[in-house]
């Protein structure tokens, strides 16, 4: 008599914007998990094939080229048939697709608005179709410019102050609208354990929550607000401070600081952010929740540290901030510490050493 073994279905995870800076690192880390298939979705508007080339060798990793402002039918992609999506569905969606650097969203302002509206709607509809958990990756930009107190740490409860018609409005207001979209979908649709999708009104929701343990309602749509992040695979010359300073230092060029001397900022290494994203997805927290490093530095201190690590002879000079750049906020991460037991563990010095080493090595392979 032949023995019968039950087929093990792997968890299907979709990462939108997976060829971007954060997305590619996330795909890489998720591949370390057992029994998972990773679907990387990107349209290469700002993402790079180079970021995911090394992942294509894995049989449980597939790339699909798609613009999320168009409806998504994963079952039409032939290379995804092996993941049996029609039968097994999608279990998790990490949504990162969006131009994210000042130069990118300044050059693609309309696309940025559409990604944060139509794109988010399409991703939410996809999550509802498959009853998948969704982590929507928002940004510290929703808080607007930091107040006159440069050391202010933003809490999740703060409403923010954003100019709806300013040069950064496509991104800042886009991210605010995308959070509103997620929050309203979350209010209207609720997934109950072992049940089909339920369309639910606030009145019915109140009735259900009176009868059921609130913890038994799955928080399917989560929001995370990511603060300044740095590390390998960041693009150069796109308006981000650290890669631009590193490039200038390695080339022994003058290091441009586009801030006043007294202004402070913070940066979190990519590995810590990725750990936080996965922790949020695995938790019962719906957010919004801040991820970032609360330790503050002046840009001059960061530039001096880069000079020291790289052995550069560059000199620091100050330049007026362009209109499309605003002061960078600093996160309060008390919620992340309490609810996720998450906090950054990689120091700025160690993170910069790793980043500079990799950027130096990659410079041999391709010109800056």
Automatic annotation (TrEMBL):
Keywords: Decarboxylase, Golgi apparatus, Lyase, Membrane, NAD, Signal-anchor, Transmembrane, Transmembrane helix. It is a single-pass type II membrane protein. Residues 221-291 form the NAD-dependent epimerase/dehydratase domain. Belongs to the NAD(P)-dependent epimerase/dehydratase family. UDP-glucuronic acid decarboxylase subfamily. The keyword Ribonucleoprotein does not apply. It comes from the Bacteria. Its EC number is 4.1.1.35. Pathway: Nucleotide-sugar biosynthesis; UDP-alpha-D-xylose biosynthesis; UDP-alpha-D-xylose from UDP-alpha-D-glucuronate: step 1/1. GO terms for cellular component: cytoplasm. Its cofactor is NAD(+). This is UDP-glucuronate decarboxylase. It is found in: Golgi apparatus, Golgi stack membrane. It comes from Candidatus Kuenenbacteria bacterium HGW-Kuenenbacteria-1. PANTHER family: UDP-GLUCURONIC ACID DECARBOXYLASE 1, UDP-GLUCURONIC ACID DECARBOXYLASE-RELATED. One of its GO terms (biological process) is UDP-D-xylose biosynthetic process. One of its GO terms (molecular function) is UDP-glucuronate decarboxylase activity. Residues 14-189 form the NAD(P)-binding domain. InterPro entries: Epimerase_deHydtase (IPR001509), NAD(P)-bd_dom (IPR016040), NAD(P)-bd_dom_sf (IPR036291), UXS-like (IPR044516).
């Amino acid at each position: 008599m032949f023995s019968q073994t039950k087929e093990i279905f792997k968890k299907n995870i979709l990462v939108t914007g997976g060829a971007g800076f954060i997305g590619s690192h996330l795909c890489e880390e998720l591949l370390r998990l057992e029994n998972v298939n990773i679907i990387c979705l990107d349209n290469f508007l700002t993402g790079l094939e180079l970021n995911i080339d090394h992942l294509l060798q894995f049989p449980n990793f597939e790339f699909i080229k798609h613009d999320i402002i168009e409806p998504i039918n994963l079952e039409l992609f032939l290379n995804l048939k092996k993941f049996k999506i029609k039968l097994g569905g999608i279990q998790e969606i990490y949504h990162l697709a969006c131009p994210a650097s000042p130069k990118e969203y300044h050059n693609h302002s309309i696309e940025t608005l559409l990604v944060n509206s139509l794109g988010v709607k399409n991703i939410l509809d996809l999550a509802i179709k498959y009853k998948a958990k969704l982590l929507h990756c928002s940004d510290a930009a929703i808080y607007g410019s930091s107040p006159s107190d440069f050391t202010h740490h933003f809490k999740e409860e703060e409403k923010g102050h954003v100019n709806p018609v300013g040069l950064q409005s496509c991104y800042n207001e886009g991210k605010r609208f995308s959070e509103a979209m997620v929050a309203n979908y979350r209010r209207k649709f609720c997934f109950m354990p072992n049940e089909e999708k339920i369309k639910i009104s606030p009145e019915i929701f109140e009735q259900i929550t009176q009868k059921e343990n609130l913890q038994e309602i799955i928080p399917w749509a989560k929001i995370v607000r990511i603060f300044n992040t740095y590390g390998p695979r960041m693009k150069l010359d796109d308006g981000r401070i650290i890669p631009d300073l590193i490039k200038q230092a390695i080339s022994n060029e003058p290091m441009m600081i586009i801030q006043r001397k007294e202004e402070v900022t913070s940066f979190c290494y990519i590995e810590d952010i990725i750990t936080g994203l996965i922790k949020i997805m695995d938790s019962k927290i719906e957010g919004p929740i801040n991820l970032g490093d609360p330790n503050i530095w002046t840009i001059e201190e960061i530039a001096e540290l880069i000079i020291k690590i790289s052995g550069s002879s560059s000199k620091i000079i100050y330049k007026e901030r362009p209109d499309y750049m605003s002061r960078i906020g600093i996160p309060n991460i008390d919620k992340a510490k309490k609810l996720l037991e998450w906090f950054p563990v990689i120091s700025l010095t160690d993170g910069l050493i790793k980043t500079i080493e990799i950027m130096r090595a990659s410079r041999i392979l391709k010109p800056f």
